[in-house]
Known about the structure:
Strand content: 5-15%
Number of strands: 8
Number of domains: 3
Largest sheet: 6 strands, mixed
Number of helices: 27
Helix content: 55-70%
Strand order of the largest sheet: 6-7-5-3-4-8
Radius of gyration: 26 Å
Distance between the termini: 59 Å
Shape: globular
Amino acid sequence: MVASDRFLLDQRSLGWLLLIALVVLGAGLGLRDPWPADEPRFALVAKEMVESGQWLFPMRGGEIYPDKPPMFMWGIAIGYLLTGSIKVAFLLPSLLAGLLTIALVWDLGRRLWSAQVGFMAGLLLLFTVQFTLQAKTAQIDALVTFFITLGVYGFIRFLLCEGGWRWYWLGWFAAGLGVITKGVGVLALLVLLPALWTHRAQIRAAPLSAWLKALLGPLAMALAMSLWLVPMLEAVTRSGDPLLLAYRDNILLRQTVTRYTSAWHHVKPFWYYLTSVIPPFWLPLSLLLPWLVVAWRRAIRAQDRRILLLLGYLMLVVLFFSCSPGKRGVYITPGTPALALLTAPFIGTLLVRVWPGRLLAGLGWLLGGVGLVGALVLAFSDRVASRLGELGPDPWLPLLVLGGSLLLINAWLRRAPLTAILCSLAVGWLIYSCWISVRLNEVRTPQAVMALAAQKVPAGDELLLAGFKEQHLLFSLQPVKHYPYLMGDGEQAREAAAWIEAAPGRWVLGSADLMVRCFDPAKMENLGNRHRTDWLLAGPQALKPACRGLSPTMVPFSYTPSS
Length: 563
């Protein structure tokens, strides 16, 4: 089998690797809008940065966004400035981070083993499901994975490649950049823990000058963090604004230490990543883990520092997130570059064996079969088809093409299981990005709802959003008002009722479960179903008697979209 995959195993070019990565990760750029849950939020914040000129504190609809540092949003905002299109800009930071991470993995594999291993490591990382998904999604995880990988790269260059102290300091500096991107940037430092064992002799014999140079590492990390923290803290202190003080406390404590130790959502059991995330989202590499464990054990017995450092780091990353009660699958994305590097040196040997090749081939056939079955269900089930009218004519066609293509690829490359599964994944991502996601775009955004609202509300009248999502602001065609994002439905319904009665020419658009608290369903207009709920438009005549005569207790935020 390995002879059939020899062409792929012999490749070494960074240029070809990045070209393949650009095609796969860049496919569909500009063809879809930001999708919930996180993408519209970050896109809206970035858009407001550019339009308001206020870059230090993230804002959404005039309300401060306190949950994440602004680094990722800065990236989208810069892309928006350069392209003039938020539809293109919102995916650029993740795309660039993905490409740079692959380049780091290639170079590390080349230096630790060979150029062929570097190419294979980069290719395996590119097609690890979780990594690909994050590099094609506007979430922070792709960018923080790059900074963490850059930190690990610097430390390993220092520890194993005789790169000098500048690489050690780079590792700390990159970890600091990771912290102000998403607090878990400190994960890069985990590679130093197995280094205490692998380099124990050098540590014991280190002179005082080496210890002094080592102490400069935390200073490099502090310097990186200060690039944002210092101006932010200075602005908060100077202003004395209670909202900014609350932002400071939330971003520095609640969203880091408190969120890790006492998570208030996404609570999962300790073994969640081992049973529910790694098996499906680290495909296809997760299929090879039983044989990789054997290979790693042999390398550990031989005291191979490369394996000891990378495997130790990977295990600590998984352990770190497993110890927190709050868990999401994306959290362990920073572990995927290490897994690719740990797999690439052994992939040729594994393919000589029968079952690794069979499992990879089986995955390709399975994906093709799922595509065909899905197409048949869409084509012949009236019940399913009735729910997919918004996807356009023949919603089954993309799945039919996908399934048929994958089956043909696996039949043609049946003697090259590695090449077959990687080609299958490449074609799958291309069809999804350039065809399926375009069809899904209409139903994944409230664009039609907000367009109808602009038609229904007379020019000059005011519109209030109740129970809104960030995407409603992002797609709004008119000035809108809204209450705090985390304000409860009951309080929002009361305030909306009081607001609409306080002056003529006012309308409320909100989610059905919220609106029925104070507005009569029979007197409201349904503008469409999005995000599992109907969005209803109400005028003052729709007010229920129980909600009349209320006095507003707060002034809503105002948001005016750019023309």
